[in-house]
Design goal:
The chain has 335 residues and is an alpha+beta fold. It is built from 8 helices and 15 strands. The protein has an 8-stranded mixed sheet with strand order 9-10-11-8-12-15-14-13. It is globular and about 55 Å long.
């Protein structure tokens, strides 16, 4: 047997029976008590390797910690997130991360990453999820043959783990518990909740095996442009109600504008119209007919775009009417 296999060799059983005989128990007339004890010990020795090989449970995944997006002109992007969206670097995570991090609340942020060496196909640079134990998450993923980078600490001193999903989308896990530290919402801040992040998916079944099968994400809602179609699949984190969104049926040769529409993130608001008015008051220039509308999911929402064309969606917490296609299958987020 290989060293450390945990299985008993024949010599181990010989030693065990010898110890019983040393106490005056002669074959084949062992007492009932001795036979019972021997049976229990033998069963334990046989079951030990099976018990030790059982996989550790998946650590909790409680929400989205941050979304990072690529930016060609960091100055223009900082002005957009700071002035138009009204966000600031108010938490320890963002203070230590520098001027390209914008707090949404005490546990969520949006970060900017400088584009270098050509514009990437997906301007959503990374989506990070919250978990109470990053090292256990690494062990869980390793047990399922998922390759990750080593666990390191971010600028705020929190352990985090980077990897890619089956289609190569960069994701991460950040160690977070509770509310994530101090935070005071700025008066000009339009939203204080990061709802979801969406990205183009080519093979839904492949991604489902990872997000739903391995990580335990659950269906929130799915639907399409037509009632019998499937163009979006929304999956909530298993121990929370923030979600990711598959953007399906996107051509492989989609241009930069289309990719910017599909790869996006969403911020939650109680009411869309006051948010719309505030965003315009912050200097956002849009066409007069560009106004909020109720989507196929039954929720009021409105889209705008950062300087690099990444879509920023504002969305109400609850639907205003029943959705098309399919009902919601999990609870809505709460303010």
């Amino acid at each position: 047997m290989p060293k450390g296999s945990g299985q008993s060799s024949p010599s181990s059983f010989h030693s065990l029976t010898s110890s019983f005989r040393a106490e005056g128990l002669k074959d084949p007339t062992w007492s009932q008590e001795a036979c019972f004890s021997f049976f229990c010990l033998t069963a334990w020795l046989l079951l030990t390797p099976l018990l030790s090989s059982q996989e550790a449970p998946r650590p909790k995944i409680t929400g989205i910690a941050y979304v990072r997006v690529y930016a060609a002109d960091l100055h223009a992007s900082r002005e957009f997130y700071r002035i138009v969206l009204g966000l600031g670097g108010d938490t320890l995570d963002c203070i230590d991360a520098g001027a390209s991090c914008f707090s949404v609340n005490g546990r969520q942020s949006i970060g900017l990453a400088q584009i270098t060496g050509g514009t990437p196909d997906n301007l959503v640079a990374e989506i990070a999820f919250s978990t109470p134990d990053v090292e256990k998450m690494r062990q869980y993923l390793a047990a399922h043959n998922v390759v990750t980078k080593p666990v390191v600490k971010n600028a705020a001193g929190k352990p985090y783990l980077q990897l890619k999903d089956p289609e190569g989308n960069p994701i991460a896990f950040v160690q977070q518990e509770g509310g994530g530290g101090f935070f005071t919402q700025k008066s000009e801040q339009v939203s204080a909740r990061l709802f979801h992040a969406g990205f183009i998916v080519k093979d839904r079944e492949l991604e489902d095996k990872f997000y739903r099968g391995l990580l335990g994400f659950r269906m929130y809602w799915h639907g399409g442009f037509k009632d019998d179609g499937l163009d979006w699949e929304e999956l909530q984190v298993p121990e929370g109600n923030e979600w990711i969104e598959y953007m399906l049926n996107i051509p492989g040769n989609a241009d930069k504008k289309e990719r910017g529409i599909q790869n996006h993130f969403s911020l939650g608001v109680l009411e869309i119209n006051p948010a719309y008015i505030r965003l315009r008051s912050h200097g956002l220039k849009i066409a007069d007919d560009d106004k909020p509308e109720i989507g196929r999911d039954g929720k009021w929402s409105w889209d705008l775009y950062d300087p690099d064309g990444t879509r920023v969606e504002f969305m109400e917490f609850k639907p205003a009417q029943p959705p098309c296609c399919h009902p919601y299958e999990a609870p809505h987020p709460k303010p």
